[in-house]
Amino acid sequence: MLNELWTDLLRWHGGEPCFRIYGKARPERQWRVIDVYATSRRNVGSGWPLWDGTCVTWSAELIAVGWDFAESIFREQSRFPSSRQYPVEVNQGRIRGRASRGPANSSSVASASEVLAHECGHTWQALRLRSLYLPYVGSVTLFREGPRAWNYFENQASKLGQFGGIVKGSVCPELAKISGEV
Q1: Which residue has the higher pLDDT, 112 or 134?
Q2: pTM of the prediction?
Q3: Rounded to whole angstroms, how far apart are CA atoms 158 and 141?
Q4: Domain boundaries of the chain, sorted by first residue
Q5: 25-56 b/e with 16+ CB inside 10 Å = b?
Q6: Quick check: 121 and 161 in contact, CB under 8 A?
Q7: CA of 56: how far to CAs of 65, 98, 126, in Å?
C-alpha cells in the first residue's frame, strides 16, 4: 500500500512522463510499461548533490533521469531500436569496468540503453520488495557493482534487467523538440 501511495504521489508531482518504456527482468514472463520522468536536476553538471547525472528507480513503475540522458536514449533508440523480441541487456551483466565487461572489442562504457536496462532490473526489485525497496536498495546503491555483499542489488539489476524499447506514441513533445524530431 505504501508503495502504491508513493508511486501515485510521484506521478502527481511529476506530471506526464518524458516517455514510457517496456521493461522487465529475465525471470518475468510479461513486459511491464514503466514511466520515465526527466528533470534538469538530474542532468550531468546540474550541481545537485547526489542527483547530478543520475538515473534512479523510485518504484516498480517509475524511473527518474536527466533531460540529457532522456535525449541520449531517444537518439540511441532512433538509430538502434530495441524491442520486446530483441531487448537490450547489460553487456556481460556489468555496467562498469572493461575487465568485467568482456572481450577487448566490447565497449568499456555502457550505452544509455544498457543503463536503462539496469534500471529495469531495479524496477523488478521494487516490484518484489514493495515498500522495502527504497530502504534496502536505496541505502546501498551508491556502492555500485562489486564483489561485496552490499553490491548484491546493483549486480542483480545489471544481470537481470531488460529494456524492450520505447512505447510507441509515448514521447513527450518537449523531448521530441529537443531532439529535433518534430
Answers
A1: 112
A2: 0.87
A3: 12
A4: 2-178
A5: beeeeebbebbbbbbeebbeebeeeebeebbb
A6: yes
A7: 7, 23, 12
